[in-house]
Specification:
By secondary structure, the chain is mostly helical. It contains four helices and no strands. The chain has two domains: 32 residues; 65 residues, no CATH class. 0% of the residues are buried.
Length: 102
């Protein structure tokens, strides 16, 4: 075998070992968790639920023509803390996905 073939086989073996260890690690994390899910999946589901609640609230807002504020607006306002959490939680995911496409 020439050197390039050996390097290709070694890279494939390393990639297979990395995948296998990741699979075992995630399986162990799921097995050890109280709810049978990865912490990342639980956090994502909670964020999706929160966004769903916010969008449902936004659909019900009726803005009066006289310029007064509706009481529904106060209940559906997204706090700066929510926005910071969403940015921190999802920006890395979106950024990594964008880099993977390049």
């Amino acid at each position: 075998m020439d050197g390039l073939s050996v390097l290709s086989v070694a890279a494939s073996v390393a990639q297979f070992i990395e995948f296998g260890s990741s699979l075992v690690s995630k399986s162990q994390e799921i097995y050890d968790s109280a709810n049978g899910a990865l912490a990342q999946n639980v956090e994502s589901a909670a964020a999706a639920q929160r966004l769903l609640e916010l969008t449902k609230g936004l659909k019900n807002i009726r803005i009066p023509r006289d310029g007064t504020r509706s009481p529904h607006v106060e209940a559906t306002t997204i706090s700066a803390g929510d926005l910071r959490w969403l940015y921190g939680r999802f920006w890395g995911t979106f950024d990594a996905a964008g880099q993977a496409e390049d």
